Amino acid sequence: MPELPEVEALKDFLTGHLVGHEIVRVLPVAISVLKTYDPPPTALEGREVVAVRRHGKFLDLATDGGPRLITHLARAGWLHWRDRLPDGPPKPGKGPLALRVALETGEGFDLTEAGTQKRLAVYVVHDPQEVPGIARLGPDPLADDFDEVRLAALLGDERRQLKGALRDQSLIAGVGNAYSDEILHAAKMSPFKLAASLTPEETTRLYTALRSTLTEAVERSRGVAAGRLKAEKKSGLRVHGRAGKPCPVCGDTIREVSFSDSSLQYCPTCQTGGKPLADRRMSRLLK
């Protein structure tokens, strides 16, 4: 799933490719991708793109006096830039193409989604707050006013484990499964540690890891073409998706805990005092 760093990079990429250009066609291919119906996608046609913004994991294309095109790529969605779009409208079918946006230059982009879950979402709205997922977002962890005091206040009453708290978009916007693993590894904390149990020193460590991990990932992704962002993300991960491989910090074997629809990875030596977490239902909370 694209998370804050990848969506930030997509925002920068699209700013350079879309702003100042006119949308001449919006072609939904998979009707399920549209989560709004008024205004219709055709209301974007003939409008100039004036800005591209990010809200958590949401991309927001603003037009001159018209509606906005907002998308959430979800787990299996992606944006593919086309220097030259194919002639003729796309044919609906069972392929991954969900929506196409064409510019007056003949360029444009496709939104695609692999798999069968179909969680890719597109909204055409006048105000980002009309999108439920944006309206409930917590603060952006890279915002200038997101400091250690604010993080401590957010986690102070959280009786959940750190892994779940970091992934909660209503608590902190933009962090998902991969970067929560990376942040906790950098902070040397168990994913099962209770958020509300952090000491001031631990809060400082977590804040530093949160900001540095996301900032470094954004910097690695900056200037990378949209089509290469997935590979860039994977190349920068230290523990997530690396179960069975050596930890780049201490050399211990990276372990995994599986859930019904996801998994987490961690280093026992760096994060849990050398104790492996065999199963989340049986493991005790490690501190």
Structural commentary:
The structure is a single chain. The chain is an alpha+beta fold. It is 27% helix and 21% strand. It is built from eight helices and ten strands. The protein has an eight-stranded antiparallel sheet with strand order 5-7-6-1-2-3-4-8. A hairpin with a 4-residue loop joins strand 6 and strand 7 (108-113). The radius of gyration is 20 Å and the shape is elongated. Residues 280-287 have low confidence and may be disordered.
Quick recap:
The chain is α+β, with helices and mostly antiparallel strands. The chain has helices at residues 4-18, 132-135, 148-155, 162-167, 177-187, 200-221, 229-236, 268-271, and strands at 22-28, 47-55, 58-63, 68-72, 77-82, 97-103, 108-113, 121-125, 255-258, 263-266. Helices cover 27% and strands 21% of the residues.
What topology does this entry show?
Elements: H1 4-18, E1 22-28, E2 47-55, E3 58-63, E4 68-72, E5 77-82, E6 97-103, E7 108-113, E8 121-125, H2 132-135, H3 148-155, H4 162-167, H5 177-187, H6 200-221, H7 229-236, E9 255-258, E10 263-266, H8 268-271
Antiparallel strand pairs: 1-2, 1-6, 2-3, 3-4, 4-8, 5-7, 6-7, 9-10
Helix pairs in contact: 1-6, 5-6
Q: Keywords for this structure?
A:
8-stranded antiparallel beta sheet; 27% helix; 287 residues; alpha+beta; 8 helices
What does the average pLDDT come to?
Answer: 93
What is the first-to-last residue Cα distance? 29 Å
Structural class: alpha+beta
Strand order of the largest sheet: 5-7-6-1-2-3-4-8
**Element-level helix/strand string:** HEEEEEEEEHHHHHHEEH
Largest sheet: 8 strands, antiparallel
Low-confidence segments: 280-287
Radius of gyration: 20 Å
